[in-house]
Design a protein that fits this description.
heterodimer; A: 116 residues; mainly beta; six-stranded mixed sheet; globular; B: 116 residues; four-stranded antiparallel sheet; 47% strand
């Protein structure tokens, strides 16, 4: 069965510091998809990024970047120059593909607090 | 366009009563998911609908939980004989096509259920 682990339960930083969120996953599938979602205090889950298991290219999108390493089953997420509005709970999630109905398995979440 | 909407936003009920939670997916989205977010269990998958196919009920925690989707659009999650451990935020999500894992899921604001 699939599993997603976010070892960090809470991270507190001062504005403009970088924040890296760790995510480790387990799956027996060779094709799978990884996601990061943000849950601000309002409660609604917001999609941030998606990565496919066959594409390990790391990318940067604005202040967000991610580091996908299949060898270590990790999918870490970095917020550069954090802002107060980045304060939220961040969830890493795994989908094992169409055969599994695309349902998401979530990690426990990491609460990020950015102080001014 | 409108996002995923859920009603009610909050529901307080007494132990043993039945409750119905409603989800209106994004227009044109054929896949619909229900998840539950609780302090003890985190974010967990409950049930998945894709078009006219039989739903994937593998995540429902007990036979007190059921869901239906009428006309391929609105969905209702019903919890019978509610228990205190059912207290959680129930999240609905929809996506364009559940058969393709490229399609991210868009989440509604959730229904916070409190069982007294």
């Amino acid at each position: 069965a699939q599993k997603v682990t976010q070892a960090q339960t809470e991270i507190s930083v001062v504005e403009k510091e970088d924040v890296t969120l760790d995510c480790v996953y387990e799956t027996r599938d060779t094709t799978y998809y990884l996601f990061w979602y943000k849950q601000p205090p309002s409660g609604e889950l917001v999609f941030l990024i998606r990565r496919n298991s066959f594409d390990e290219q790391n990318e940067i999108s604005g202040r967000y970047s991610w580091n996908f390493q299949k060898s270590t089953s990790s999918f870490n997420f970095t917020i550069t120059a954090s802002q107060v509005v980045d304060s939220a709970v961040y969830f890493c999630a795994l989908s094992e593909g169409a055969a599994a109905g695309n349902k998401l398995t979530f990690g426990g979440g990491t609460r990020v607090l950015v102080k001014p | 366009g409108a996002g995923v909407s859920q009603s009610p936003s909050n529901k307080v009920t007494e132990k043993g009563k039945d409750v119905e939670l409603r989800c209106d997916p994004i227009s044109g989205h054929t896949a619909l998911y229900w998840y539950r977010q609780s302090l003890g269990q985190g974010l967990e998958f409950l049930i998945y609908f894709q078009g006219n196919s039989a739903p994937d009920k593998s995540g429902l925690p007990s036979d007190r939980f059921s869901a239906e989707r009428t006309g391929g659009s609105v969905s209702t999650l019903t919890i019978q004989r509610t228990q205190q451990e059912d207290s959680a935020v129930y999240l609905c999500a929809s996506s364009l096509e559940g058969g393709s894992s490229y399609n991210e899921q868009f989440f509604g604001p959730g229904t916070r259920l409190t069982v007294l």
